[in-house]
Give the backbone structure.
Amino acid sequence: MHTHRRGRLALLVAIAMTLAVIPAITVGATPPSGNPATYTLDTHFDEGTLVNVNHNSPNNDQLQLDSQPTPFGFIWVAASARGT
């Protein structure tokens, strides 16, 4: 296994272990209405777009990592010398 893949796998395992210890995740955000909101229920999570996370059974009303993450169709590379 390449070092890059091993590092990525180690990061995913660390994130999964961290999330396994946290009983629930509360996500705070400001929706388009401008009024702050706290997202804690499945119905709240369904209002947005979930990327590589879900709230499936048996852990309803909390976000968890997908068992098979889907790679993004793009990459964002910083060009720090140009400030972009």
